[in-house]
Amino acid sequence: MPSPITGRRQFVKQSVLAAAAGSLAWREDAVSLANADAVDRSIKVKTPPNILQADICFDPAAYTAFPHVIRLEGDELLMAFRQAPRQERVRHTHPRSVITVIRSYDLGKTWDHENAGQLAAGGGQEFAPFYLGDGLVGGLLAMHEVVPVREAQRTGIPHLHQIEYPFRNVGGFWCWSSNAGLTWPLHQNVLFGPKLQTCSSAIRLADGTLLAPLYGNIDDGLTGVASNVVYRSTDNGMTWSDATVMARGTKETRDYYEPCIVEL
Fold first, then answer.
1. pTM metric for this prediction
2. Three-state DSSP class for 253?
3. Domain extents for the chain?
4. How many angstroms from the chain centroid is the CA of residue 222?
5. Buried-most residue among 24, 82, 181, 251 (CB within 10 A)?
């Protein structure tokens, strides 16, 4: 067996030879590329066959984001998304952010913008509806409190990010509509995940149990390390269990954000 010193020298020598060989190969490739015909790198966009793509909602004065769409009965679809005034750069907070809900009666060919509904004004971040049947639509709502920059001190809402407005994480809500999402009464909600954020849709297991994935710092909300948790409901979202941790973030490892769950 070679001595450690000899072994290291041999390794260094082999590494140098490998590097030299790699450099030579790169030079040969570079020469061949230089002599090759020009490569067409223009961007070409083609619509996939049998796919119809249409703009559903575009407002140049608004930042529209985080869409979720579900099917109700027959050909009726319901879509929810966040809207806020467009800024010079992308901001995920705004005092006038709101959740807009629109519907289609023909499987998405046309959408009724004129009669759009809204909920969660003043800090609605994301809303993922879920159809429970018989006209009952529930959904996971991520909600902030947002104020103008000059009002941060008076409200006690921290201004943590320079490009964002002062905001506070209210938490994850379950909201519901009893008329297929046409109205969203203020009293029909449950704050079950204080200081945490929802993102994806809830799922319903075979036994009817609802599972809702959330993320954030379990103790401090916006600050600290983020973890993934899940809540359970056995009564269509009227009450919820305590959080079960799916993935706990630590300073030594990583944060966990935006979970999504499925039933296998």
1. 0.80
2. coil
3. 1-35, 63-247
4. 16
5. 181
